[in-house]
Amino acid sequence: MSEPHESEYHREPPAPAHDDLAPHLGRVHLSARHRGVDATTLGRLLLQLPQLLTSLAVVFLVSYAADALFGPPWWIPLGCWVLSGASAFHRPSERLLARRLYRLRYPTPEEDHKLRSAWRQVTARAGVDADTYQLWVEDSPGINAIAAAGHIVGVTSHSVRTLTPGRLAGVLAHELGHHVGGHAWASLLTHWYALPARIAWWLLRRLASRVDRVSVGVTAVVTGVLGAALFALATATYGLILLPLATPYLVAAVSRRAELRADAHAAGLGFAQQLMAVLHEDLDRAATARVSASAMGARFEEEGVMARLLASHPDAHTRLHHLRAHLDNGR
């Protein structure tokens, strides 16, 4: 979660501390199709399309060079790279990702009991088979959770240990919202398929940093030619060539909207109050930390505009505002 700030939300009473998870009564009706692609997932894929096409070009050039030098057909490594994204939905590959990339572990018996109890209440309300996803635990002192790949739902050990069943269910319902909207797999796949472009850009920067004996005249000519070419391309494409400069900010905005959609999914399942209680706890902890630091003479700097524009998560107050709107609309 983003760092919260103090506000009038502190005056709202928290959710009940005990017995705050009402059991789901009656039959559980499983939906034949519960996952889809929402607007934020489409937005992320469209914004990353130039980088993905660049990666495709890089892999094609490397594959073609390997074909010319060593003999294997260029389409074999290219095809393997294109198909490699399917491993995000392959259970053994997901387990490897969970352990190596996300540093998750299997829950202990006590953690598993508490997690599965809350998870089954969430999935019963959502009409989802609880066994579709695998629950993991991250050894971390904070309250957080993650939805990744095709079937990974991870929760920090501190969350499992300290949250009430209802609040834990609210956090899990939020992560289920990421899977339902397609946010989890889209985030992983865009990151994976953009890696060749990022590596190529890093290599170009390293090569450029080593060219330190170019005369001022040559530098001026090259700068002028590149500037003229960029101006011509910007004019011909009506400025679309400059879109990658704004992509990080647009991707961050889409990511923040995805978080609000996941909150809306949790609220739709009846966990708005529990999720708000978790956010209030986050606000209280941050306020206590600021008071303690101020007493020791430390200073807190306000987050700058650029940092807020690049934040992948909305601040706690924005989330609370939208959750409160869901509660008001449901009355």
What does this structure look like?
The longest helix is centred in the last third of the chain and has 26 residues, at 243-268. This protein has 331 residues and is mostly helical. A three-stranded mixed beta sheet has the order 1-3-2, sandwiched between helices. A hairpin with a 3-residue loop joins β2 and β3. The protein has helices at 39-47, 49-70, 75-83, 91-101, 109-126, 157-162, 165-180, 183-193, 195-210, 216-236, 243-268, 272-295, 305-309, 316-330, and strands spanning 134-138, 145-148, 152-156. It has 14 helices and three strands. Helices cover 63% and strands 4% of the residues. Residues 1-19 have low confidence and may be disordered. It is globular and about 70 Å long. α5 crosses α7 (165-180).
Concise synopsis of the structure shown:
It is a multi-pass membrane protein. With 331 residues, the chain is mostly helical. The protein has 14 helices and three strands.
Strand fraction band? Answer: under 5%
The assigned structural class equals mainly alpha
Overall average pLDDT: 84
Work out the radius of gyration.
Answer: 24 Å
- Give the helices and strands as they follow along the chain: HHHHHEEEHHHHHHHHH
Number of strands: 3
Low-confidence stretches: 1-19
